[in-house]
Amino acid sequence: MTQPTPCPILDLNLGPLDLNLLGLHVHLNEVVLDVEAIPGPGNLLGNLLCAIAGLLDGVDLGGVLGNLLQELIDALIRLLEGIGGGGGGGGGTAPVAQQAAA
Predict the structure, then answer these.
(1) Number of domains the chain contains
(2) Is 35 left (phi over 0), alpha (psi -120 to 50) or beta?
(3) Which superkingdom (predicted)?
(4) What residue numbers bound the domain in which 79 lies?
(5) Are 54 and 60 in contact (CB under 8 A)?
(6) Which of 34, 36, 51, 62 gives the lowest tally of CB atoms within 10 Å of its CB?
(7) How far apart are CA 40 and CA 93, in angstroms?
(8) Is residue 38 within 8 Å of residue 4, measured between CB atoms?
(9) Angle at 73 between CA 61 and CA 84, to 5 degrees
(10) What CA–CA distance (Å, rounded) separates 1 from 43?
(11) Which three-class secondary structure string do you get for 5-67?
C-alpha cells in the first residue's frame, strides 16, 4: 500500500534573532517549522486541511487583492469628493434656512 502524499500547510524559516529588552537578552539561533497534513482513511484533520489547502490552487491572490485594494481606494476618493461639497456650493445648509423661514 502506498503512502499518501502530504499537503504542505506551513513552511516557516526564521533566521537568527537577538533581542535586548530592558536588560533581558534573548538569542534565538534559527527556527524551522514545517507543518504537513497527511490525508487518508481515519485522518480527519489531515483530510480537512488538505482539502482547504487546495482551495486556492490556481488563484492569483495578488491580482484579487490588488483589485480589491483599488476598489477600496476608488470608493474612498468618491467619499472624500462628496464630503468636499462637489455639488453646488454648500447644498446641505440651504434646506435648513428654508425651513426656518417657513
Answers:
(1) 2
(2) beta
(3) Bacteria
(4) 59-84
(5) no
(6) 62
(7) 68
(8) yes
(9) 170
(10) 16
(11) CCEEEEEEEECCEEEEECCEEEEECCEEEEEEECCCCCCHHHHHHHHHHCCCCCCCHHHHHHH
Q: Which amino acid is at 64?
A: V
What does pTM read for this prediction?
0.46
For the purposes of burial, counting CB atoms within 10 Å of the CB of 50, is it exposed (0-12), middle (13-18) or buried (19 or more)?
A: buried
Task: Answer yes or no: do 4 and 33 share one domain.
Answer: yes
Identify the pLDDT of residue 75.
Answer: 93
Q: What is the pLDDT of residue 1?
A: 67
Q: Can you tell me the distance from the alpha carbon of 70 to that of 32, in angstroms, rounded to the nearest whole number?
A: 36
8 Å CB contact between 37 and 46: yes
Whether residues 2 and 23 fall in one domain: yes
